[in-house]
Amino acid sequence: MENIAHIPTRMLINGELVEASDGKTFAVHNPATREVSAHVPEASADDTNAANKEELARLDAISMGMPVSTHHYAAAAATNFEHYSEAWPSIQGQASVNTPGMVTMTLRQPYGVVALIIPWNAPCLFLGTKSAPALITGNTVVLKSSEKAPLAVARIAELVKEAGFPPGVFNIISGHGVPSGQVLSRHMDVRVLSFTGSSRTGKLIQEEAARTNLKKVILELGGKSPALIFEDANLEKAVAQTYFSVQLNSGQVCMANSRIYVQKSIAAQFVEAFKAKSASSTRPGNPLDKDTNHGPQADEVQYRNVLAYIEEGKKSGTLAQGGGKTAVEGTKGFFVEPTVFLDTPETARIMKEEVFGPVVIINTFGTEAEVVAKANDTEFGLYASVYTRNVNRAMRVAKALESGYVGVNCTSPTTGIDLPFGGYKSSGQGREGWLYSMDNFLETKSVIMQIDEE
Fold it and tell me: Which of 48, 258, 392, 422 has the fewest Cβ atoms within 10 angstroms?
């Protein structure tokens, strides 16, 4: 080109100037001559996601042990910001002339200061699902990361600054529940607090909110999710999906199907297939290794807690697989091998309490009524699933299960992109999701205007 010694075309990803990963380019034409000025890389989906996702995945790996091979949450967080950046026109009130002599309307207005406390098991994901709707509705945000997984969130804080957010609009802090989380729960300027984490901490937050300014509290808490496998189910599919659910993130997922109920006629076949799947598919190791799909527990506290539950399980049920720590060559990490218990009494602690580790109990049932009663016999109600080819049974059971989310012929972490997510009973209050989260951060004001008759 005349008078231009160098035409820059490459993309900047992770500090490097690169071409598109798939080699695709598009032409740029000079409108004065119609000639091609340059060929510029066409960023693929992988290129777009790679800009920060690999770094964020590594930071989560070295802070709480999530394998980089299963870390898709940076892209999910970005998707949330993209969605809500286009969702703002739906923030609308209503007008009415139904009241004689009046024009009435509702206004949807931000609360002001919103506090968000996110968990350590998927920090990037929850940062996106909570902060994006809170910000787009006009609130200022104070987000606290967990002391177990602050690194990826701290990097996102740098990206927020680079993106040019106005000072004071999006604030990101790190720290323990006491003092920083407690301060947010008690703070008189905070009007809304959204929390995802343990039921114990959620109750403490609710208490602090009630004692101070009665701030609005949205809670997504623990789970003890049941999967019901009827004899007409697709057995191979049920085995693969229930294994993945309790194995993902080393069982550190609130909606993991940690209780599996299998109809007696297929129980032996299911158990053997489940054990074989676990033995052949679990690859423990360094979470920075892309071949690893089973990382350590997040820290020593989680590690010892899971091992304690396993010892409890040995006293109450039959150990069928695993049952202790896993020594991974070259590490001193907090690894726990996938563990399966059978024939565990419904009253056992391990059946009632959230383990938050790679531990599953497989029990049997005879009738539909029996298994629904067993599935509901817990204070948790976050996610449940039912596997059957009988559509009528599927809908009966889905309606009967005391759970905020029910998967039919699928299980967690599968969710619908536009459905509300939240729990029954002690699994929380409020709902989150693309069509629901903005409501959590908006006040509704009624305005009534009298029209004088001439």
Answer: 392
